């Protein structure tokens, strides 16, 4: 196990910068997830740590070694790829043993390492098979096994579950999580799936257009997003955003939009007064939009017209039209009977709202 | 009733088409085979008469030029295949995996060579070979064949490597291989079906090649295709002997095709 430190790491293709001055300290044994939409530079960052891409500027350190100019084989890392990248002409056993054989490990030791990995992953019956004789899930397990046998300093995962179907993905997610407990190793995991990011990461790094947007624990990222992008990217259904005007009457600050008015807390009012803006963007998580009338004294109610309902069995999701804006409400009891075009009363708690600057889109705190 | 008639008509047309295709392909080979076992007097009436003989084969195999030509063709095809492939594999891999001006120039060179009609090379090559003193030698015949194969097969080989996901090589780099090691131990074995298919195509195309054989080979290094043509003489064509030689020449190619068919199909499906 070793720490991984990225200092002002830049990647340029010609004059085009795809990764901008990334600074990231990953502690030994930590599991960090890089998440973001396609083209945000997360995979490039991972490939730079692996040594599969040269870095244009900055320093990458694994343990106490600067690895900028080291080839991948000398970085003591192991990597799981999206498409498994198993050696098609080798059996499962040879796939697992390949890395150790390259490092001239004695054959008896290779056997014991392979046995350890196969027992952990339930691969014993598949050792003599070739990759094309395995299912997607089995292939990905072999790819994980290939990492485990090597006992590297760092595990790198490049969207390892993207090629699996939804059910298998959920299962493999749990397996990776369980594996973490048994093989605690510094890990960097790249995904575009926010559920994987939230469930697997000790810390999550949200990226966009080659810039790091926020680094934090999954709960920090969810509850205190640094900006509007992070707020919209993490969470499903995505956060609702409404442009509001701030009005202060008798010392009480409220946010107004068409057919919508919500009272803000004293703390929020103080922050907004300091910020000075008259209009801001309000962010409301769909699960914080509740049906009915407020059950506490910080709640504000409003009415909206039901556009669409989505029955998920465990919850009901409603898309509402509130003064021309669409507001999603989730975690409504699935038994609730709401018909399209009906006018319903909803409420939100002022304390649960997020505030973002209209221009910079940065959270106001 | 109408649908039954239509169905029958469709089946009949299909059967006739298959029969026609069969005749077109198999007919000439059947005529060749029968001619090769008819005496000289019977070649113009091959479907009549009951005179059959293997003397044509005996006579042909007693001609040292024919035996020599078969051996030369075999050696040339095998050497051309080995040497062409060793260049083509590298060339195809480079075109598939790397970018830059060297790759682009190489690609353009191959493209230009492919667009130039094959026959237009032959006369200049004859002059070059004569000037260099390699006319009618193995080297003089090998070099043009290799050039043609590299130009024609580099593209196919590029396609084979394009079909192999590069992440397998990345995994090998991380697993302790150098770039060269990843190529030899991972990319190359994965491309083997394609390489086997190309090897067979390469061997067959050299064995069957006529134009280079006619212009660039002579009495010192006769090749089977040009030797066959020598049965056309001023006094007439010895069809029976020519057919016997053709049947003999067909044999290695037939064997290679039959036994290598599996690899050709698998390789070309890559």
UniProtKB/TrEMBL annotation, chain A:
Membrane-spanning intervals of the chain: none
Swiss-Prot/TrEMBL GO biological process terms: carbohydrate transport
Keywords in alphabetical order: ATP-binding, Nucleotide-binding, Transport
Annotated InterPro entries: AAA+_ATPase, ABC_transporter-like_ATP-bd, ABC_transporter-like_CS, ABC_transpr_MalK-like, ABC_transpr_MalK/UgpC-like, Mo/tungstate-bd_C_term_dom, NA-bd_OB-fold, OB_MalK-like
PROSITE patterns assigned to the protein according to its UniProt record, in alphabetical order: ABC_TRANSPORTER_1, ABC_TRANSPORTER_2
One Pfam family matching this protein: ABC_tran
Bilayer topology: Peripheral membrane protein
Domain ABC transporter: 4-234
Gene Ontology terms: cellular component: ATP-binding cassette (ABC) transporter complex, substrate-binding subunit-containing
UniProt superkingdom: Bacteria
Subcellular location: Cell inner membrane
MF terms in GO: ABC-type transporter activity; ATP binding; ATP hydrolysis activity
Function, as annotated: Involved in beta-(1-->2)glucan export. Transmembrane domains (TMD) form a pore in the inner membrane and the ATP-binding domain (NBD) is responsible for energy generation.
Family according to the record: Belongs to the ABC transporter superfamily.
Name listed for the protein in its UniProt record: sn-glycerol-3-phosphate ABC transporter ATP-binding protein UgpC
Gene: ugpC
From TrEMBL, chain B:
Matches recorded under SUPFAM superfamilies: MetI-like (SSF161098)
Entry keyword set: Cell membrane, Membrane, Sugar transport, Transmembrane, Transmembrane helix, Transport
Short name of any one Pfam family annotated for the protein: BPD_transp_1
GO annotation terms (biological process): transmembrane transport
Subcellular location: Cell membrane
Gene Ontology CC, one term: plasma membrane
UniProt KW Glycoprotein keyword: no
Residue stretches making up the ABC transmembrane type-1 domain: 70-260
Spans through the membrane: 12-37, 74-95, 107-127, 139-161, 182-206, 241-260
Record membrane topology: Multi-pass membrane protein
Stated role: Part of the ABC transporter complex MalEFGK involved in maltose/maltodextrin import. Probably responsible for the translocation of the substrate across the membrane.
Similarity section: Belongs to the binding-protein-dependent transport system permease family. MalFG subfamily.
Name the record gives this protein: Maltose/maltodextrin transport system permease protein MalG
Species for this entry: Bradyrhizobium archetypum
């Amino acid at each position: 196990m070793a720490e991984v430190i990225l200092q002002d790491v830049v990647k340029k293709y010609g004059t085009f910068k795809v990764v901008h001055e990334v600074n990231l300290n990953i502690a030994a044994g930590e599991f960090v997830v890089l998440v973001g939409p396609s083209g945000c530079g997360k995979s490039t960052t991972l490939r730079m740590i692996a040594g599969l891409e040269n870095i244009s500027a900055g320093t990458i350190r694994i343990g106490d070694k600067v690895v900028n100019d080291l080839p991948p084989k000398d970085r003591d890392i192991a990597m799981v790829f999206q498409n498994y990248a198993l050696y098609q002409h080798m059996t499962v056993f040879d796939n697992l043993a390949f890395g150790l054989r390259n490092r001239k490990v004695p054959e008896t030791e290779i056997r014991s390492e392979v046995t350890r990995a196969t027992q952990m992953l339930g691969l014993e019956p598949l050792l003599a098979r070739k990759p094309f004789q395995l299912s997607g899930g089995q292939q990905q397990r072999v790819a994980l096994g290939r990492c485990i046998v090597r006992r590297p300093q760092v595990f790198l995962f490049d969207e390892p579950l993207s090629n699996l179907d939804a059910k298998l993905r959920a299962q493999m997610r749990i397996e990776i999580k369980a594996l973490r407990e048994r093989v605690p190793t510094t890990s960097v995991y790249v995904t575009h799936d926010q559920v994987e990011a939230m469930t697997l990461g000790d810390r999550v790094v949200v990226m966009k257009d080659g810039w790091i947007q926020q680094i934090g624990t999954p709960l920090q990222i969810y509850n205190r997003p640094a900006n509007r992008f992070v707020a919209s990217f993490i969470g499903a259904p995505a956060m609702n955003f409404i442009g509001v005007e701030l009005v202060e009457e008798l010392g009480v600050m409220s946010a107004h939009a068409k057919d919508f008015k919500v009272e803000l807390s004293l703390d929020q009012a103080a922050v907004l007064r300091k910020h000075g803006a008259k209009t801001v963007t309000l962010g409301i998580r769909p699960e914080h939009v509740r049906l009915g009338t407020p059950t506490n004294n910080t709640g504000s109610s409003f009415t909206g017209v039901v556009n669409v309902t989505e029955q998920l069995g465990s919850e009901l999701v409603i898309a509402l039209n509130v003064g021309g804006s669409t507001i999603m409400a989730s975690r409504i009891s699935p038994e609730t009977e709401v018909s399209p075009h009906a006018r319903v009363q909803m409420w939100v708690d002022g304390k649960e709202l997020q505030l973002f600057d209209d221009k910079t889109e940065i959270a106001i705190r | 009733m109408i649908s039954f008639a239509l169905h029958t008509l469709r089946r009949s047309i299909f059967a006739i088409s298959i029969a026609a295709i069969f005749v077109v392909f198999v007919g000439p080979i059947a005529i060749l085979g029968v001619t090769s076992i008819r005496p000289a007097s019977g070649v113009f009436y091959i479907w009549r008469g009951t005179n059959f003989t293997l003397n044509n084969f005996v006579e042909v195999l007693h001609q040292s030029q024919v035996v020599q030509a078969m051996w030369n063709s075999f050696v040339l095809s095998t050497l051309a295949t080995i040497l062409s492939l060793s260049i083509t594999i590298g060339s195809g891999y480079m075109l598939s995996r790397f970018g830059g001006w060297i790759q682009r120039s190489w690609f353009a060179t191959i493209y230009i060579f492919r667009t130039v009609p094959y026959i237009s090379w032959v006369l200049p090559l004859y002059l070059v070979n004569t000037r260099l003193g390699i006319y009618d030698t193995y080297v003089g015949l090998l070099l043009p064949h290799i050039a043609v194969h590299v130009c024609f097969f580099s593209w196919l080989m590029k396609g084979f490597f394009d079909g192999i996901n590069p992440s397998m090589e990345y995994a090998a780099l991380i697993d302790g291989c150098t770039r060269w090691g990843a190529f030899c131990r991972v990319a190359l074995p994965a491309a083997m079906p394609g390489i086997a298919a190309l090897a067979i195509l390469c061997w067959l195309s050299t064995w069957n090649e006529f134009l280079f054989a006619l212009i660039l080979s002579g009495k010192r290094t006769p090749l089977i295709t040009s030797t066959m043509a020598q049965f056309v003489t001023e006094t007439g064509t010895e069809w029976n002997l020519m057919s016997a030689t053709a049947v003999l020449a067909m044999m290695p190619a037939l064997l290679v095709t039959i036994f290598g068919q599996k690899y050709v199909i698998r390789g070309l499906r890559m």
